[in-house]
Amino acid sequence: MKILVTGGCGFIGSHFIRIIFEHRPDWEVINLDALTYAGNLANTLDIQTHPRYRFVYGSITDKKLVDQLVSEVDAVMNFAAETHVDRSIVDNEPFILTNILGVQRLVDASVKYGKRFHHVSTDEVFGHLGPNDPKFNERTPYEPRNPYSATKAASDHIVRAAMYTHSLQGTISNCTNNYGSHLYPEKLLSIGITNILEGMPIMIHGDGSQIRDWIHAKDHALGILAVLEKGRIGETYMMGGDSEYSIVETSRKLLSAMGMRENMLTFISDRPGQDRRYAIDYSKIRDELGWEPTLTFDQGLEEMVNWYRNNIQWWKPIRESSGYRRWFKSQFGDFI
Ligand SMILES: NC(=O)c1ccc[n+]([C@@H]2O[C@H](COP(=O)([O-])OP(=O)(O)OC[C@H]3O[C@@H](n4cnc5c(N)ncnc54)[C@H](O)[C@@H]3O)[C@@H](O)[C@H]2O)c1
Fold first, then answer.
1. How large a percentage of the chain has pLDDT more than 90?
2. pLDDT at residue 140 above 90?
3. Closest atom, ligand 1, to C-alpha of 178
4. Is there a contact between 275 and 145 (Cβ–Cβ < 8 Å)?
5. pLDDT confidence of residue 331
6. Residue 261 confidence (pLDDT) above 90
7. What pLDDT sits at residue 329?
8. Would you say the C-alpha torsion 61, 65, 70, 76 has a positive or negative sign?
9. 3-state class (DSSP) for residue 102
10. Active-site annotation holder among 148, 179, 237, 308
11. Among this protein's residues, is 124 annotated catalytic?
């Protein structure tokens, strides 16, 4: 089997490639990545010399390149995306280009060459839940509430429409919040860990009562592999982590995993369009494909903290050179 992974230098894409070489050592992987601020060759350092791995620098919006690469493989796994909600609120253009136009390009090429296509998406396309609402499932109506989730919703619709109109051999997965090693230091847990390691507090938007369901990226990657191999064409599969915690509870767990006291939490103004609660009913993928998360949040968090402690050379240059601090300060003021 030869697969094209897009966005494989990002957080989840790089976990997926590692899972492939661990579980399907005879597969070949082409990784197409535009190396945006979130893409990092260091995320694939351990696989760069693998004989069945090839990296191609380029964008999923490049029609000619996408056409050529899709023609070479058996399946296309789309992880490439602009993914940070706060950034989408400030500048939506890269989100429109990659998450919508880029996905259309991949779908068009997959239809043209009759290739298997899997689209990685998010539960944020479903909006948010009240405290007692039933969890999202495959029949939940779409209701995106920020520019990021609006573009991801559009991409899901593009894929689903092509499955009906052009018989695209496609599947979609919608997953809840991922955590684990190689998470770019701009999301709650990776900012939290790196802030603490640099003596800064964890930032909490609003009152921190928003609830997230955490899943380790390795478990997500294993679920995507299950969908690729055993999923029914035309279907959507939802993945969750069985780990619903409020942002404050999550941050307290993180502080405790790092041996810190609670005074390392700082509350800042809430961002616009903040969703209250995400939670996923993953019974379909469990019953049909036998997938369920393997790591508890406590186990995964400990592993993640240890990874950031032992890989300062990975995150320190990102914090220093990415403009993250300047960008964050421009949005949220003098937070240090
Ligand atoms: N992180 C989460 O919690 C989460 C949860 C559910 C779903 N998802 C979805 O999983 C996928 C991967 O998310 P992630 O957190 O790994 O993202 P990420 O931001 O860490 O990585 C995205 C990768 O895509 C690449 N990329 C961006 N634009 C590109 C383009 N035009 N062409 C080629 N490559 C491009 C980047 O360079 C980067 O390597 C996304 O589709 C996201 O919507 C993420």
1. 88
2. yes
3. 3
4. yes
5. 58
6. no
7. 65
8. negative
9. helix
10. 148
11. yes
Report how far residue 287's alpha carbon sits from residue 306's, in angstroms, rounded to the nearest whole number. Answer: 33
**Is residue 60 in contact with ligand 1, taking CB distance under 6 Å?**
yes
Instruction: Please tell me the residue having the least CA distance from ligand 1 atom 6.
Output: 122
To the query of whether residue 123 is one of the catalytic residues in this protein, the response is yes
Cα-to-centroid distance, 6 and ligand 1 (Å):
9
Pairwise CA distance, residues 189 & 6, whole Å:
24
8 Å CB contact between 98 and 81? yes
Distance 88 CA to ligand 1 centre (A): 13
Q: Quick check: 335 pLDDT over 60?
A: no
Read off the tokens for 23. Answer: 């579980």
Q: For the structural domain made of 2-183+214-242+277-295, what CATH number should be given? A: 3.40.50.720
Answer whether 152 contacts ligand 1 (Cβ < 6 A): yes
What are 171's two structure tokens? 């599947």
Tell me if 293 CB under 6 Å of ligand 1.
no
Residue from 28, 33, 108, 123 carrying the catalytic annotation: 123
Distance set, CA 312 to CA 181, 198, 259, 307, 309 (Å) = 12, 10, 18, 9, 6
The per-residue pLDDT for range 161-178, each reduced to its tens digit, is 999 999 999 999 999 999
Letter for the amino acid at 179? Y
